[in-house]
């Protein structure tokens, strides 16, 4: 019980720190919403023939919800791990009476909560302003959010252990994230026959986007639980967790 209480206390601390960081607030909270507004407005009357003629915004809304989740649980969290390591904050925390489980737990819960809130905002905006229809497969969508948020948090911890300095954090984090977002179909569906689609299928981003759309696809008659996509996402999460367990650093990397 004491660890749970300390985790919740650390979570509240993380939330305060996040709200006091304008750059993080913009890129994690506002940026996905801005992208949704821009692309949804430009393509309001467009329909995707390769997806059964559904509206572009019916595809794009869950895609941006997935993007918001990844931004919080991967990009933002990895950057915070590196920043705190290189500024000595993690080292001081580890030397304090605060259990490691509470420290890491507070960080992860904060990232998941922020990602869920921003994803919900995107879904609400797409539904209210751009005519997207909410999914009838809520169980599938909620299960996807749980698996994806856990896995991308683990990947964030893993990639942070491979970043050698604070100056290289943003190039490595966004350099491994944004190219995959583009080729995975976040902004427009990529044909399955495309070499880029084949390349993207190796990584978890495409599977998260496709599984998100499956839950929203009005032409799908199945339960919407895409076990094949969930398996790939979870496998990458396990790999990230194993890498973090082996390589995670609490002290600044010395040259």
Question: Outline of this structure?
Answer:
By secondary structure, the protein is an all-alpha fold.
Please give the structural blueprint.
Blueprint: H1 2-19, H2 22-42, E1 47-48, E2 54-55, H3 56-86, H4 89-95, H5 100-130, H6 138-160, H7 169-183, H8 195-200, H9 204-216, H10 227-247
Antiparallel strand pairs: 1-2
Helix pairs in contact: 1-5, 2-3, 2-5, 3-5, 3-6, 3-7, 3-9, 5-6, 6-9, 6-10, 9-10
The largest β sheet comes out as: 2 strands, antiparallel
Number of strands: 2
Beginning-to-end CA distance, first to last residue: 41 Å
General form: globular
Mean pLDDT level: 88
Low-confidence stretches: none
Determine the fraction of residues in helical runs and give it as a percent range. Answer: over 70%
| Number of structurally distinct domains | 1
Range of strand content = under 5%
The secondary structure category is: mainly alpha
Secondary-structure element order, as H and E?
HHEEHHHHHHHH
Radius of gyration over C-alpha positions, nearest whole angstrom: 19 Å
What order do the strands of the largest sheet run in, or round the barrel if closed? 1-2
H/I helix tally: 10
């Amino acid at each position: 019980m004491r660890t749970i209480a300390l985790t919740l206390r650390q979570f509240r601390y993380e939330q305060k720190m996040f709200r006091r960081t304008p750059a993080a607030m913009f890129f994690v909270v506002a940026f996905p919403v801005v992208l949704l507004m821009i692309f949804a407005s430009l393509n309001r009357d467009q329909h995707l023939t390769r997806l059964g003629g559904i509206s572009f915004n019916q595809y794009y809304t869950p895609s941006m919800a997935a993007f918001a989740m990844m931004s919080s649980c991967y990009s933002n969290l990895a950057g915070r791990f590196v920043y705190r390591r290189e500024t000595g904050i993690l080292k001081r925390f580890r030397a304090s009476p605060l259990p490691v489980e509470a420290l890491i737990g507070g960080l992860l819960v904060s990232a998941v909560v922020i990602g869920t809130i921003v994803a919900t905002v995107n879904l609400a905006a797409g539904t209210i302003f751009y005519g997207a229809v909410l999914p009838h497969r809520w169980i599938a969508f909620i299960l996807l959010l749980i698996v994806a948020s856990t896995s991308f948090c683990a990947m964030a911890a893993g990639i942070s252990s491979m970043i050698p300095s604070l100056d290289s954090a943003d190039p490595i984090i966004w350099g491994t994230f944004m190219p995959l977002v583009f080729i995975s179909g976040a902004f427009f569906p990529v044909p399955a026959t495309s070499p880029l689609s084949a390349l993207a299928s190796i990584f978890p981003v495409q599977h998260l986007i496709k599984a998100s759309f499956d839950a929203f696809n009005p032409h799908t008659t199945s339960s919407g639980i895409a076990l094949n996509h969930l398996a790939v996402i979870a496998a990458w999460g396990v790999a990230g967790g194993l890498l973090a367990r082996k390589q995670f650093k609490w002290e600044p990397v010395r040259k």
